[in-house]
Amino acid sequence: MSRSVLVTGGNRGIGLAIARAFADAGDKVAITYRSGDAAELEKAGFLAVKCDITDSEQVEQAYKEIEDKHGPVEVLVANAGVTKDQLLMRMSEEDFTSVLDTNLTGTFRVVKRANRGMLRAKKGRVVLISSVVGLLGSAGQANYAASKAGLVGFARSLARELGSRNLTFNVVAPGFVDTDMTKALTDEQREGIVKQVPLGRYAQPEEIAATVKFLASDDASYITGAVIPVDGGLGMGH
User: Fold this and answer.
1) What is the CATH number of domain 4-229?
2) DSSP strand pairing (227-230 vs 167-174)
3) Residue-level pLDDT at 180
4) Beta carbons of 44 and 21 less than 8 angstroms apart
5) DSSP secondary structure code for residue 185 in this structure
6) Among 35, 103, 104, 210, which residue has the fewest nearby CB atoms (within 10 Å)?
7) What is the H or E stretch that residue 128 is in?
8) SS3 category, 32
9) Catalytic residue positions?
10) Which residue ranges make up the annotated binding site for NADP(+)?
11) pLDDT value at position 188?
């Protein structure tokens, strides 16, 4: 049965792979994006909605458009995120707060708005995209790691708060993924990263998408409050 699915930050990389996985399964998929051209996304069959998740009014308008065209969101994948890497002594307060405002508070905004329809329907699936960095830590990424670690406490609190209403909240924690962001690294940097990964390679975006799709499926109906690492073993034990 076709569901109304929303993937935030779904215009590239991991988000786009997730959107494609749901679309291939026959779901109606909406994507929010902050910058770029929506034409290609719409050509691929997605409902592309421009939305900056740091703005509550834009989030509200995006949901109204999605609900009008696809119905209330039944599956939400909160994927939108930013980085502003810097060593602590050089990190400005704006570097810190802006990353948290997108990655953590932005997730709060989109989840809270999705819950309106999910509570009415007495069902819903929410998957938050965190990072191995949120569990493992990373020098120069205190802001990013804090925001991604915060998603775990957020999801687990909501799993307890809303489990009785047939809503599930889970977290996927990807490791190093082969995207445009990591392709920009030098060969030496990429080699250094791969040496840390027990499986000895980067993940493909589709491997993250497969785990997200599983958590939103009937097969995962008794899984909530879970943190699923998809990191080639990089963060095991955390």
Assistant:
1) 3.40.50.720
2) parallel
3) 77
4) no
5) S
6) 35
7) strand 124-129
8) strand
9) 144
10) 9-12, 79, 144-148
11) 86
